[in-house]
Amino acid sequence: MSQFNIEEEIEEIAGGEFERTPVPKYSWKGWKSFLGMYAGEHAAGTEFMIGPLFLTAGVSAFDLIIGLLIGNLLAVLSWRFFTAEIAVKHRLTLYYHLEKICGKNLVTTYNLANGILFCFLAGAMITVSATAVGVPFDMEMPKLTDTMPNGITWIVIVIIVGAVISIIAAKGYSTVSQAANWMSPIIVLAFLACGIVALNQLGVRNFDDFWNIWGEGSEPFPGQVKFTFWHVVLWSWFANAAMHVGMSDLSVFRFARSSSSGWTTAAGMYVGHYMAWIAAALLYAVYLKTPEAQTFLTNGQAPPIAPGPLANNAIGLFGIVAVILAGWTTANPTIYRAGLAFQAIIPKVSTFWVTIIAGTIATIAGIFPAFAMKLLGFVALYGFILAPIGAIIVFEHFFGKRVGIIPFYAEAKKSNFNMAVLLAWAISFGVFYFISIQFDVFLSFVTLPAWISCGALYLIFSKVLQKYH
């Protein structure tokens, strides 16, 4: 049996996802696969939450519209010139790539943290879908301040939604990609329709009317952070920090024929993180004019954000279906990524079953509304935790040879623990998290400094420590 056939058989046993070998040429995919996935994933469940949350943060029209243009461009450039570039060079999952640098013992901790954080994010999207499923049942929707489930109906619906999403994700990348391709045009159309209907409900007749929805901004709602221009730019850039500068999407772009597939992320950013965020904000703006919402504000409370009822109010049944699918297409690839993280820890277990485990954790998280209702803060936190590890891969790839360090050090030296990685991440995380807490600095403001610090310190510590081994 040839080496190729042996590897092919091993991958078939492991689930055919090439978790510990480079993706072979026969499995490379064209740009259309990524276009559908990114458009579906980012014009999706998070958008129904994030758009309204910008309104609760009192953002101004200029800060939102121009800030999102710039922040999303920076995100696309990060995917194209960092993530996709490195992915097609090595064609490894993030987890196996890190293992070759960090050593198995150290990367296991990272994989566990990464997988759990992805599960929590997927859980927030299951929450979003559940708000739509609950509309026909006249279910009480979670409030912005809720942390615990508000009834048995909510729990049952979340479990059913989570089970279906988990099974789809467990079928592997091809199934995830196909599901996104099928659903994303429907979801994008729904967001566009929601935005148009909401503009009509708000009485918008020209650009000035549209601009005045946000105007010069306002005070944030109770319990929310005030967003400025730089909040919007940096938050939108680093909303997916774990995926691009954090290198998680090495696991996705390793299937790409060329690094130019990285440009397809623009479909996600400008359809999803631009048009869809603004459309969702418009839905919430309509709700804020209702007597129910005004009662909440009069009582010093933030009106609830429930994507299902908001979309239903605009476009009826189509809106309910769109919200269900939107949560689905975000949770699917997120659970898939989490499954790969867990599979790196327990490689003898098939990808199917570790993804089911990830889906189960995500479903449990989805029962608790807090992850969805505090999404701006949670996304900033998980990006801040995971992104600096990606800097180690980026700095080794672009500067390692110039500095003179051994690439894939743990693999080369058969080491299970690369101290340079731990020191670089711990110092960067510790210093900048302390700055954030001590001086009340929003985490997105310190994500880039922490990322650069981690990459630079890794090169310095590697240069010093490798001399003694």
Short summary:
Helix content is 72%, strand content 0%. The protein has helices at 3-14, 31-42, 45-56, 61-90, 94-102, 104-133, 152-170, 173-201, 207-211, 229-238, 250-253, 265-288, 291-298, 307-315, 317-345, 351-367, 370-373, 375-403, 409-412, 419-438, 443-465.
Low-confidence stretches: 1-15
Count of alpha/pi helices: 21
Query: Which shape, going by the Cα principal axes?
Result: globular
Q: Largest sheet, described in full?
A: none
Structural class: mainly alpha
- Count structural domains: 1
Mean pLDDT: 85
Number of DSSP strand runs: 0
β-sheet strand percentage: under 5%
- Measured on Cα atoms, how large is the radius of gyration? 22 Å
Gross CATH architecture: Orthogonal Bundle
Helix percent reads over 70%
End-to-end separation in angstroms reads 39 Å
Q: Secondary-structure element sequence?
A: HHHHHHHHHHHHHHHHHHHHH
CATH class: Mainly Alpha
Topology readout:
Blueprint: H1 3-14, H2 31-42, H3 45-56, H4 61-90, H5 94-102, H6 104-133, H7 152-170, H8 173-201, H9 207-211, H10 229-238, H11 250-253, H12 265-288, H13 291-298, H14 307-315, H15 317-345, H16 351-367, H17 370-373, H18 375-403, H19 409-412, H20 419-438, H21 443-465
Protein name: Purine-cytosine permease family protein
Transmembrane segments: 64-88, 109-132, 152-170, 182-202, 227-246, 267-287, 310-331, 352-372, 378-395, 416-435, 441-461
InterPro entries: CodB
Keywords:
mainly alpha, 21 helices, disordered N terminus, 469 residues, globular, Hydantoin permease
